[in-house]
Write a structure and sequence with these properties.
single chain, alpha+beta, 3-stranded antiparallel beta sheet, 2 helices, about 30% helix, flat
């Protein structure tokens, strides 16, 4: 799924709530739900100010749908 922006603004200006995954070097995963891109980047920068190799990615498309189905079945 693509998020189209109006007026050519970067994604960090978009107020759409999204889902992100944080992957730690030890393999631990953390899911952040209903957070804007700007909020996510701020939180990520505060967690990893010295570049501790945390990996951040947006969960979207079929993977996001699967995550929602799995949560509804709990």
């Amino acid at each position: 799924m693509k998020h189209e922006m109006n007026e050519g603004r970067p994604k960090s200006w978009d107020k759409t709530k999204r889902v992100y995954e944080i992957l730690y070097p030890n393999g631990k995963k953390e899911i952040w739900k209903d957070i804007t891109a700007r909020e996510c980047l701020t939180k990520y920068e505060n967690m990893d100010p010295h570049g501790n190799e945390l990996k951040l990615r947006e969960i979207e498309g079929k993977e996001l749908q699967l995550l929602k189905v799995m949560e509804n079945n709990k």
